[in-house]
Amino acid sequence: MMGFAVFLSLMATGPRLEGANVNVFAAVSLAESLKEIAAVHEKESGDRIVFNFASSSLLARQIVEGAPADLFFSADEASMNLLEIKGLIEKGSRKNRLSNSLVIVTTREDGAMISGPADLAGPAVKRVALGNPRAVPVGVYARQYLEGLKLWSAVQPKVVAADNGRAALAAVESGNVDAGIVYKTDAALSSKVKVVFEISQSQGPAIHYPMALIQEGKHPEAARKFMDRLQSKAAGRVFARFGYLVPDTGDAP
Fold first, then answer.
1. Residues 183 and 226 occupy one common structural domain
2. In the chain, N or C terminus with fewer CB closer than 10 Å?
3. Global pTM?
């Protein structure tokens, strides 16, 4: 007959209930930082974080069309606004978490001679990679910046529109374009490009990364726990290490 102590030991070491699969739709520019944060969260919570990375505008459309998401982390306000207008995010859950900035990049080896945004409009530059300037947040930000400088009409015919910021970066890395405007955080991940001009926050458009819980998410409590993790100071330190501007939330460590 099994001893009571052995029974208790087996109970303590027996199989644990499986955690939830939390579907997180997030801007592709956040991929590396979110994966690092999620790895720690999975070990501590037992939940599994399942990412869908793409441009924020595409992700928002997917959620509107019924894609199963628990949490949305956008690279712009417009994509989140769309979901909020349609009543698809949980009231009171929306938080602005991060900010970013834009840079002009060329290939590291034999890159175009560019010292500032005006050079993008000059005859030496034939092709400029941007995220789709009509939809993709980083492309919209770049268009707004160039419009403010009265350069957009000259640069627009040269634009090679990409599906997202990482695709625009890849176009520069390959040498298929002369230059690109991408997030500072994306440029920092590449050894094949160099930053030739950094657009200060005071000169560029305001870039905000809001996040929110999805109203019809299948795992609301698990999603809320991961969102709490994303708002923690520990997560903030990860984001800062990847180059994001992180406000002091005053939340838990």
1. no
2. N
3. 0.86
